[in-house]
Structures are given as structure tokens and as C-alpha cells.
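seq:
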Amino acid sequence: MTKEAILAFSQGQAEPQWLLDRRLAAVENMAELEFPVIERVKFHRWQLMPSTIGQSWDLPSVPDFLAIGDNPKLVEVGSQTVLEQLPMELIDKGVVLTDLATVLEERPELLETYLGQACPDDSHRLAAYNTAYFTSGAVLYVPDGVEIDQPIEISLLEDRASAQPFVKKILIIAGKNSKFSYLERLESLGEGAESVAANVSVEIIAGRGSQIKYAAIDRLGSDVTGYISRQVYHHEDATVDWAMGVMNAGHVVCDFDSNLYDRGSHANLKVVALSSGRQVQGVDTSVTNYGEHSVGHILQHGVILERGTLTFNGIGHIIKGAKGADAQQESRVLMLSDQARSDANPILLIDENEVTAGHAASIGQVDPEDMYYLMSRGLDRATAERLVIRGFLGAVITEIPVKDVRDEMIQTIDDKLEKR
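struct:
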């Protein structure tokens, strides 16, 4: 029945045969593949792989598009695209920003060439599931040498009024020597009576000499149990600066990987996470240095409220042959409750000489001296605590390219603090 449902969905969307074949092959492989390794997070019994595939056609309330500017933007609610805007000057330069259905109709070679390059279907069971069951998503393609000044935004909004699983693919292709900033939102809209599974796969192909500033804010709802994968394939001298806010309300595991395949490639990953209530969040951030003189730095800061659980795994792996590589990482967690649970696990795997590597990890509470200093200046405890937390998470928040989104992230933090 699973294969029949996927076949019916694929034919209903008029997908090409090669994509249907990949879907069916992924189904076959799922049973043989293992789950991804997220150390110290017990997620294997979470309901992450419902065997249903379909689309929702009831359009809920959508954001006020008059208030979101005129920069390049794509918005999907559920499986429907509700907004696309791309300036004509960028269209003339060959830039593509659209949903998967449109790309399959107009530029199928982009998907056939690049899909699965950063995250192959047979990487693990959840990657295969995503390929078999994804219903929608988006593609951004920036051709060689194109530089874009305005930030590009893609928003995938999970419709809580729908019981359909939230299974998405995003593919970002940066041509040689291209340069742009990108913002991604994963967010729940409204309220729903049923729990929903989410599986979101983002693949980034960073061409030679490209420069990408990538920012993401994840705010899936309390009834959403999810797996979020972001994978980058770095070519020579490609640089990707990441800034990600993991602000979900439900149980979520995240897998953020940079693969530095070629000489001189750079990855700078900054992650902030906030866990509260009884939720469990696990963030697995890794950099693998394959190329000589490649550089991978990880900075993770998290805050835990109430009985929340937050796990940071930082993994730096320097492969044999990557001479001159640099792998650094820092993971720090601030606990605001004696009932909170946290792990900060630094892992370094070094298979080459003549390299640089280091790590740091800490878990603690708000520094009493910081609190004393602020309160001695007339601030109450709640305000002082909020300022300390903002400063602790500020290293990532300041990297978000859109001021309104930075303000949203700060407001999300403030809202969770006020609900304690």
C-alpha cells in the first residue's frame, strides 16, 4: 500500500520517471538503513515516519504580505505556494526561486543533477524517508558570478489545521563565485487537534569560490515532532556562514553537516537553541574536512528552561589527506532550572598530521556576579536575567541578515522566559 500511495501521488503530480524511481528505491532501502546517529538523544521511538503522503488544499490564514518587503521571497503554507516574488533583474540573470513543482516543469535538470549530492538518499533511514514521502519544497539557484544584495527568504509554514505530515525538500545551488544572503523559516501556523511528524531536508551545493550567508529560524509547534537536516557540499574556496536559531516547541532532532570536500573551503556554524517545558531537542553539528587547508568552526549556545532537555553534539573530523585543515568547536549551555537536563559533547576525530584542532564545552547557570551587577543598577531579577540570556545568545542572533527576524528571535526568547 505504501508503494501504491507513492505511485499515485507521483503520477498525480506528473513527476518524471527518474523521480518516481528514486522514491520507490528509497522505500525499498528504508528497512535496511539505520537511523542517523545523534549521540545521547533517544529519538528512535518518536513517530517520525508516518506512511501517508498527500496534500492539503484548505488554505488557512496566511501572513500579511504587505508587511514583508519586496526582497526575493517564497512562502509555502502546507503544500501550497502562496507567494513568490523575484525582481526581473534577477530573473534576467538566470536566478531561480520557486517551488519544486515549478522546477520539475521548467528546470528539471537542476533537480536531476543536484538533488541528493549533499545528502544521498541512502545516508540513513530518515533521509530515505524524506525522498520517498516529500510533498513539496523549494529551489534556489544562483548562477555563476551573480551577486545579490538583498536577502533571499524561503518560508515553509506548517498548517496545524492539516493532519498531513510536514515533509519538505529545499535545494540551494550556488554557482561559481556567486554571493548572496539567505534566510529560511520553518514555522507552525494555527492550532491542531492531532500530532504531526515533520521531516525537512535542506541541501546546499556551494560552488567554487561562492560565498553564502545562511540564516534559519525554526519555530515548529508543540504538537510537531520533527527531524531537520541541513547538509552542505563545499567546493574549492567556497564559504558558508551559518546562523541558526532552534526555537521549536516540540520534540526535535537537528542534523547540521558541512562537508569540506575541496581545498580552501570554509564553514562557520553558529547555533542557538532554546528548550522549555518538557520538550527534548538534540542538535548534532558536524564539520568534515576532506580538502587541504579547509576550515570548519562550530559555535553552539543553548538555554534550557523548566524541565526541558537540550543536547549539543559538536563533531570535527579531519580526514586523511586534509593537511593544513582547521577544526574548532565550542558548545555552551545555560540552565535556568535545577530540573533541566543537558549534554554538551565535543568530539574530535583527527586522521592527519599538520592540522589545527580544538574544542570547548560547558554547562552552567547564570553567573551570580552578572546578576548582581545588573540588579545593583536598578533592574529587577527577571529583566536582568533576560539581558544575560540575550547576551549569551547574541553571537548568533547578530548574524541573522534581516532585522525583523532578529527581533522575532529575541521576542521568541522573551515570550518563553515570561511563561516560566
